[in-house]
Amino acid sequence: MKNDHRMATMKFSKVYPLYLAKAERKQRTREEVDQVIRWLTGYSDSGLRQQIDKESDFQTFFAEAPAIHPNSALIKGVVCGVRVEDIEDPLVRNVRCLDKLIDELAKGKALEKIMR
């Protein structure tokens, strides 16, 4: 995909407020957004804050993630017209998985179901 490079260099700290805004419009909280992100990546709360503060790009954000949750392979569905389970590039798949989890949160899905 031609957008793969752009996605890798996109700053997580610039996208994070968009995740928050999307969730908060649907009466979800920052804590819930952070919990979903920490579940997927294995970051502690302070580790997540450090990534935001140092303005890591997505490539660094996922490369430094303590542990991508093994159940992330169970994340399926369509994000931006692309089936998550069909994405071969690991970085793009991780970004799209995160997008999908935030979408599910914003749609009112229970945290227990989001964090499979």
From TrEMBL:
Pfam families: DUF2200. InterPro entries: SP1917_dom_sf (IPR023204), UCP033199 (IPR014580). It comes from the Bacteria. This is DUF2200 domain-containing protein. It comes from Luteimonas salinisoli.
